[in-house]
């Protein structure tokens, strides 16, 4: 049967659509302004979360520096992550990507044999995970370096130069 919407329903749907678009535009503006501030460009006055974005960028760059200095992570290196969702994971992933490394996700619920297969076939140079999960990874398949995820928050160093072409890829 054909349903006819009342004018009140249509009006309400219109209002919801306008509010949704407004919210999305505000989020976009804040992200854009955060990027513009990072690049030293002028920003809008209404950026409410730019300080948090700047903190995240600073943390990611410090961890990228630590990865570079402590483990010599470079573009193309494969680093496996064996961890459930944790606050450190996004920072580590962004820092690895900042270095041009390839993130190799491992499912914590999978069997250790699956991890061994992926680590071997991916050619992982590094592995980061929770201490309890890292203990289940056989020594003979452990990559060159292992970083407990619990140590990521203490990892820091001088921000390395971005890999060639990274700026163009992000523009």
Give the SSE layout.
Layout: H1 7-38, H2 50-71, E1 78-82, H3 88-98, E2 102-105, H4 112-122, E3 126-129, H5 131-134, E4 145-148, H6 166-170
Parallel strand pairs: 1-2, 1-3, 3-4
Helix pairs in contact: 1-2, 2-3
Number of strands: 4
Ranges where pLDDT stays below 50 over 5 or more residues in a row are 1-6
What Rg, in angstroms, do the CA atoms define? 22 Å
Class derived from helix and strand content: alpha/beta
User: Count of helices?
Assistant: 6
Mean pLDDT: 80
Broad shape: globular
Helix content: 40-55%
Largest sheet: 4 strands, parallel
What pattern of helices and strands is seen along the backbone? HHEHEHEHEH
Give me the side-by-side strand order of the main sheet: 2-1-3-4
Strand content: 5-15%
N- to C-terminal distance: 50 Å
